[in-house]
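Entry 14. Structure prediction run on the chain below.
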Amino acid sequence: MYPLVESICIRDGIPQHLNYHQERVNRTCNALFQGETPPLLLNSISVPSHLLQGLIKCRVIYGPHITEITFSPYPPKKIQTLRIVRTTGVSYPWKYVVRPELDNLFAQKQAADEIIIINDGLITDAYYYNIAVLIRDQWLTPATPLLTGTCRQRLLDKGYLQEATLTESDLPNITCWQLINAMTPEETLTFDPSQIIGC
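Output returned:
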């Protein structure tokens, strides 16, 4: 059932958007560990003094209680191409450390740098990211993600994204793709359809 993980962006010593991570920890613990009090991230994260500058990834491993917290510098990801991988019956509602179904899909990327998962005919997520797409001048995110990400939820709350049921038939209408997660500033991982293999 666990361990689970939260990946939290630390920018110049300050944890970013911690309330969204806490909300997901609360949902996860309420679903999986009924009767247990969810661990409080704010009380647990103390950034080491030598990591107070730049972009740092804080990795919190937990079950009913936090078992490990690590910090490491986070270099920018270099992604040039994404491959569409089609599958059926994949479920990943909670952010587990071990995720063999997604690992098997990622292994199909061949020479691409990332994958876009179409599950049961629905556009869902990438391996490390949620997805946003531009269709007719509107930024949309799949209403059926495999995992509800904290950055995705924040952008929905701000009105920057709208949820939509996106199917394989929508692929020709997508004019821009974007990968989003807690560690990636918005608009830094943006791709045109020519970079998507298998559309």
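The first helix runs from residue 18 to 32.
Filed with the rest of this week's runs.
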